[in-house]
Amino acid sequence: MTFLWAFLVGGGICVIGQLLLDVAKLTPAHVMSSFVVAGAVLDAFDLYDNLIEFAGAGATVPITSFGHSLLHGAMEEADKHGVIGVAVGMFGLTSAGIASAILFGFIMAVIFKPKG
Amino acid sequence: MSGLNSKDYKKTSKSYQPKTNYVWNCIKAFVVGGIICVIGELLSEMYIHWFDFSEENAGNPTVATLIFLAALATGLGVYDKLGQFAGAGSAVPVTGFANSITSAAMEHKSEGLVLGVATNLFKLAGSVIVFGVVAAYVLGIIRFTWQAIF
């Protein structure tokens, strides 16, 4: 059942992105930046966790979850260390994503030649 | 040519622009984006059942695996073909983030490892990180203050 909801919710988020591209004529960079901010805002109101519980990877795979994880990591540390924790925990949950993006991006760029 | 004012020009030029098929684009984005999320769900189930991750922290290896697959597909030139077909369906999932990093790095490979690959790695993806961190920082401070007061 989670698979169906992952498909529907993940696909739905992509449709919103497509509409922003086609109708609002935004660039992909603008859409992705807006989605990250939207994910952080949804997490600020504790809404994004409900979406993850409901749709699983349908909510964690779209880029909105990056904003959610940034704020979530920041708040976890803020509970322990106060305001300084916001900076300390900022990349706490997203480290795996950023580290692997840098590593694999670099390796692939070294191995492969651009086509066309 | 004297009769061509700016209003006419807009009208004429519009008829030469390719028409956007909103519905078909949305269907493509929906299906491809949905499939990528289902692959993510499969990976996360795999990490939970076979590698003893909990449901909360299975997201980390899942995202890392998806990023690896997307970077590889970008290197092979497959992901950009998918991107032309799916639009936001391949850009919005975290795989699109990996694609933008890898393609920017590959594009500038001829300028060398330091000035080309490493300098341009975050050329496209940088905006996502900047806006994410700034938004999370501001919201984090607001939420912390809110919790401290109430």
What helical percentage do the residues of chain B reach? Answer: over 70%
- Give helix and strand order of chain B, one letter per element, not per position: HHHHHHHH
Mean of pLDDT of chain A = 91
Number of strands of chain B: 0
Rg of chain A, Cα atoms, Å: 16 Å
Overall mean pLDDT of chain B stands at 88
Radius of gyration of chain B over all CA atoms, rounded: 21 Å
The helix/strand series of chain A, from N terminus to C terminus, equals HHHHHHH
The low-pLDDT segments of chain A are: none
Q: Stretches of chain B where pLDDT falls below 50 for ≥5 residues?
A: none
Instruction: Give the chain pair forming the largest contact, with residue counts.
Output: A-B, 77 and 78 residues
Structural category of chain A = mainly alpha
Transmembrane segments (chain A): 83-112
Pfam families (chain A): SpoVAC_SpoVAEB
Protein name (chain A): Stage V sporulation protein AE
Keywords (chain A): Membrane, Transmembrane, Transmembrane helix
From the structure above, extract its key features.
heterodimer; A: 116 residues; mainly alpha; B: 150 residues; 8 helices; membrane (chain A); transmembrane helix (chain A); Spore_V_AE (chain A); transmembrane (chain A); SpoVA (chain A)
Architecture blueprint of SSEs:
The complex is a heterodimer of chains A (116) and B (150).
Chain A: H1 2-22, H2 28-44, H3 48-55, H4 57-60, H5 64-81, H6 84-88, H7 95-111
Chain B: H1 6-16, H2 22-50, H3 59-75, H4 78-86, H5 88-91, H6 94-107, H7 113-120, H8 126-149
Describe the structure.
The complex is a heterodimer of chains A (116) and B (150). With 116 residues, chain A is mainly alpha-helical. Chain A has one domain (2-111). Helix content of chain A is 78%, strand content 0%. Chain A has seven helices and no strands. In chain A, helix 2 (28-44) packs parallel to helix 5. The longest helix of chain A has 21 residues, at 2-22. Chain A is globular and about 50 Å long. The relative contact order of chain A is 0.11. The model of chain A has no long low-confidence stretch (mean pLDDT 91). Helices cover 77% and strands 0% of the residues of chain B. Chain B is an all-alpha fold. Chain B has one domain (19-124). The mean pLDDT of chain B is 88. At the A-B interface, helix 1, helix 2, helix 4, helix 5 and helix 7 of A face helix 2, helix 3, helix 5, helix 6 and helix 7 of B. Chain B: InterPro entries: Spore_V_AC, SpoVA. Chain B: This is Stage V sporulation protein AC. Chain B: Keywords: Membrane, Transmembrane, Transmembrane helix. Chain B: The chain crosses the membrane at residues 21-43, 63-79, 125-146. Chain B: Pfam families: SpoVAC_SpoVAEB (PF03862). Chain A: InterPro entries: Spore_V_AE (IPR014204), SpoVA (IPR005562).
